[in-house]
Design goal:
The protein has 9 helices and 15 strands. The strands form 4 sheets. The chain has a 7-stranded mixed sheet with strand order 1-2-3-13-5-15-4. It has a 3-stranded antiparallel sheet with strand order 12-6-14.
């Protein structure tokens, strides 16, 4: 299909869950043309997660599609496509992915977090390995007015070393010092976006609520995470080879479900730069 034909296509989307996730039906040519990029971005903000079933992007096509959605954001090492794999040959920094098994937002330690992330399946796991997403806009909206008032002005310390303790609770001092050298950042518990919508800022980087005891901080953060990951706010994607999933990193959390670490599971990720800091 050429670009001229692609412009005639109608964007069709069906809700997967009432509060999160839509399945998008467009041809590859239409997606790469960028003609529907604005509508896709609007739909992504509203639904949190978009699924392109078995679209079978090549790496170059995935990069091209990502560029239609915003400013392309390469990896720190400069590569455009990042291998999500525990295979050492495919990802020399595979230990970093251990934290992906726990709920998180990408880039909370950055001045501006990642905008959208795009993930394509290349090799399936032998078992497990779904990717789960939760809608942190919807989770905030569903709180009682009283609870919203209680957390409205709370601020939270986030750190990379906190994420490492999830999977390595007894690190060596040398390991801990390396993790802590990545610094800490203070963020609001409730993110008021430029649009006026509000979402919860949680995940495994969240360490302490400022002004609260360690015990009280844990109750607040773990309690809100438990709330935000209730079934009504969650979509679990079971991968097929060729699937591409897009998520709004500014309004969702995500995690990988456990899978065989030796199975060769492989996904390719690209991403866009965020457009606003967490304030």
């Amino acid at each position: 299909m050429n670009t001229a034909t692609a412009t005639l296509e109608k964007l069709e989307a069906e809700d997967i869950r009432p509060l999160i996730g839509s399945r998008v039906h467009l041809s590859k040519a239409a997606l790469l043309s960028g003609e529907h990029a604005s509508d896709l971005k609007d739909l992504l903000e509203q639904r949190g997660v978009l699924v392109l079933p078995k679209i079978n992007f090549t790496d170059d096509e995935q990069v091209q599609f990502t560029e239609t959605l915003g400013e392309f954001l390469p990896e720190i090492q400069g590569q455009k496509v990042y291998n999500i794999s525990l295979d050492l040959e495919k990802n020399p920094n595979r230990d970093y992915l251990k934290g992906s098994l726990y709920w998180h937002i990408d880039g909370t330690m950055n001045k501006v977090p990642i905008g959208a992330a795009i993930l394509s399946s290349k090799v399936l796991p032998t078992w497990g390995g779904n990717t789960e997403f939760c809608n942190t806009y919807a989770a905030y909206d569903a709180l009682t007015d009283e609870r919203k008032a209680e957390i409205a002005n709370m601020r939270v310390t986030h750190s990379m070393w906190n994420t490492q303790l999830y999977h390595t609770p007894e690190p060596t001092l040398a390991e801990l010092e390396i993790w802590q050298s990545m610094g800490e950042i203070e963020l609001p518990l409730v993110w008021t976006h430029k649009s006026g919508r509000k979402s919860l800022v949680l995940g495994n980087t969240a360490q302490d609520v400022i002004g609260k005891s360690r015990a009280e901080s844990a109750k607040i953060l773990h309690g809100l995470r438990e709330w935000a990951t209730r079934p009504q706010f969650v979509y679990s994607h079971e991968w097929s080879v060729g699937d591409t999933v897009i998520w709004d990193n500014t309004g969702t959390m995500h995690r990988a479900m456990p899978y065989d670490p030796d199975c060769g599971r492989l996904l390719h990720r690209t991403k866009t730069a965020g457009e606003e800091p967490i304030v």
